[in-house]
Every structure is written in C-alpha cells, then in structure tokens.
Amino acid sequence: MEEHEKVLIDSSMDGKTREQLGLKPFTCTEIRANIMGIPLTITKEIIARAIRRAVEGSYEEGLDNTISWNDVVNMTMFNITKKGKYSDLRIEYKML
C-alpha cells in the first residue's frame, strides 16, 4: 500500500525496494497511527496480549457449530455471557 502511494506521487520510483523508497522494512502486518504526535503501532501480538489469548490459532473444518463465538467474545470483553454495551467494557478494551 505504501509502495503504491509512493509510486503514484513519483512514477520514477516504480520497481524500487521499500528501503530505496524510504520506507521501513516489512516485518509483519501492523496498524500504524499517529495520535497527538505520538506514533502508535498495533500488531496481532499486542491485540492478543490485551485480550489474554494466544497469538497462534488454527482453523478446523467441520466442527459442531453449537458453541457460540459471541459467548466467548462477551466473556472476554465484558466478563458476562450476555451481549454487552460499550459502557460495560473494561477500560483497557475501550482504549483498543
């Protein structure tokens, strides 16, 4: 995405590496933002730590669909199995 934006600005940059374009090397998928002048980077590891879950996961086909992921999410975010509201979120989840 960033490479594409650089090439749109200057077409002579087409075919160059991230380093030649002046971009950080790619290490993993991340969300980058700038809040009040403070650079912020969020990776899947940070999200996993915040919700106290393992980063690794697996997909298994053909499992029984009687287990509701809504219950798992509500228990993680709200500490209850019924649907929660934003106002019921713990502070660390409001920050996310």
User: What sequence of helices (H) and strands (E) makes up the elements?
Assistant: HEEHHH
Number of helices: 4
Sheet of most strands: 2 strands, antiparallel
Structure class: alpha+beta
Plain-language structure description:
This protein has helices at about 1-10, 45-50, 70-80, 90-95; strands spanning about 30-35, 40-45. The chain has a domain at about 65-95. The chain has a two-stranded antiparallel ribbon with strand order 1-2. About 30% of the residues lie in helices and about 10% in strands. It has four helices and two strands; from the N terminus they run αββααα. The model has no long low-confidence stretch (mean pLDDT about 75). β1 (about 30-35) and β2 (about 40-45) form a beta hairpin. The protein is elongated and about 55 Å long. The chain has about 100 residues and is of the alpha+beta class.
Layout of secondary structure:
Elements: H1 2-9, E1 30-35, E2 38-43, H2 44-50, H3 69-78, H4 91-95
Antiparallel strand pairs: 1-2
What labels describe this entry?
4 helices, alpha+beta, 12% strand, elongated, 96 residues, two-stranded antiparallel sheet
Compact description:
This protein is 31% helix and 12% strand.
